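Minutes, project check-in
Item: structure for the 192-residue chain
Input as provided by the requester:
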Amino acid sequence: MESLKDLEEHIGDCHRCPLGDTRTHLVFGVGREDADIMFVGEAPGRNEDLKGEPFVGAAGRLLDELLASIGLDREDVYIANILKCRPPGNRNPQQVEIDTCTPFLREQVRLVSPRVIVTLGNFATRFVLKTTESITRMRGTVQQAGHFTVLPIYHPAAALYDGSKRDVLFADLALLGQMCEASQATEQRERP
């Protein structure tokens, strides 16, 4: 694929797994095609399925707050999910669905080529880092996956159900902000 548009056209009206028969809209991804930061979530929820865009419900509003807390907004990053279609009842993704959909995510990562991938929750973290560790153990730690820096954090929806995770999410995003500042400082030093 030459572009995200090519990939989206290739996916088309996907029915490669049973989720294609139960969704309203395929939720491809949004944001800057050359973003330095890519957020990877689990799967679209009800609001995302209705609109065809990731993170547009309450979790999306919290993600917007998190981004704003480090001086970013949606237009600065790229946002995608492990699955492109909503699992019925927001159930957990099944392995066959993950296996079917993640080649598309891999291609999105290749095309965007971010410096940092922020994984949101267990499924994204386990897939990107090829681990069985829980998000509770991994969150807030800087990891490497190939040439990508990865920062696992709780999914914003987790903070909606458990308010104690809200402060943790903001602290983890502050770490991302520090990483961005350090990267910018390094770039400035390396310029002639």
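Outcome recorded: The radius of gyration is 16 Å.
No further action items on this chain.
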